[in-house]
Amino acid sequence: MKNARLVKLALSLSGVTAIAIGGAILLVPAAFYATYGIELGSDANLGSDIRASGGALLTTGLLMLAGLVVPRFTFASIVIAAAVFLSYGLSRLAGVAMDGWPDSGLIWAGAFELAIAAVSLLALSRYRTTA
């Protein structure tokens, strides 16, 4: 049952992380981004766009956690977790290549995202071999 524990770890870690970050971006975007030295200002268009991405991330986190309680969602939930966190981490690397080095907090965020992606991909590979 090692594989089941790895799947649960991957889905728990990815789901809780996505919900926490997505919820913060949706509900308190200025405070969230200020921790990285980003000032959002009062542009309603920017606020709307940022809150929308926060809501999407929160929703994907819920889908990740759904795989813990609904067995038929498990495979899709792991795929979502791997795809979301891999895309965030790789996009941050692309940003470094195109724009230069951001705040150290964003570097750590990217490393954490890639770590969650790695755990999710490992869980996915183990899940596929036992399913």
Automatic annotation (TrEMBL):
InterPro entries from the UniProt entry: DUF4345
Keyword Transmembrane helix: yes
Chain segments annotated as transmembrane: 9-32, 52-70, 75-94, 106-124
Transmembrane helix found in the keyword field: yes
Pfam families: DUF4345 (PF14248)
Keywords linked to the UniProt accession: Membrane, Transmembrane, Transmembrane helix
Protein name: DUF4345 domain-containing protein
Species this chain originates from: Bauldia litoralis
Phylogenetic placement of the source organism: Bacteria, Pseudomonadati, Pseudomonadota, Alphaproteobacteria, Hyphomicrobiales
